[in-house]
Structures are given as structure tokens and as C-alpha cells.
Amino acid sequence: MMVASLERRWTVDDVSVYLGVPVKTLYKWRCQGYGPAAVRIGKHLRYDPDEVVAWFNAQKSAS
Which residues form the signal peptide (predicted)? Predict the structure, then answer.
């Protein structure tokens, strides 16, 4: 049985601050199929914090 995390999902602004990149860059990456995965909830994007951190760590090991 899968248990959903009750941790708050990150907004584009939250991810922008965490990664140190402009919000516009996150939208551009999304259009290019790059960057951490996001889910669209209505007109809003939400990110799973664990996936953002995992994506960031993967970038560190890839460079």
C-alpha cells in the first residue's frame, strides 16, 4: 500500500529559490523537456520536493 506524503508541494517560486534560477528558466526547461518534473494542477505547476532534490543531485553527479 502506497502512503502519500503530506509534505507541501513546491511552487515554481519555491523551486526557483532552491535551484537559484529564474522562474522563466523553469518554464523554458519544462517546454524543452528538461528540469525537475512538475504536475499541472489547474493553471498551477506543483513540484514534489523529493523529486526536485533528486533531480538536482543527479545533475551534480552528471557533471
Answer: none
pTM of the model: 0.85
Domain span at residue 50 reads 12-62
What is d(CA 15, CA 29) in angstroms, rounded to the nearest whole number? 12
CB-based contacts of 45, cutoff 8 Å, min separation 6: 11, 12, 30, 38, 39
- Tally the domains of the chain: 1
Start-to-end CA distance of the chain, whole Å, equals 36
* Distance, CA of 51 to CA of 47 (rounded, Å): 7
Residue 26: pLDDT band (50, 70, 90) is: very high
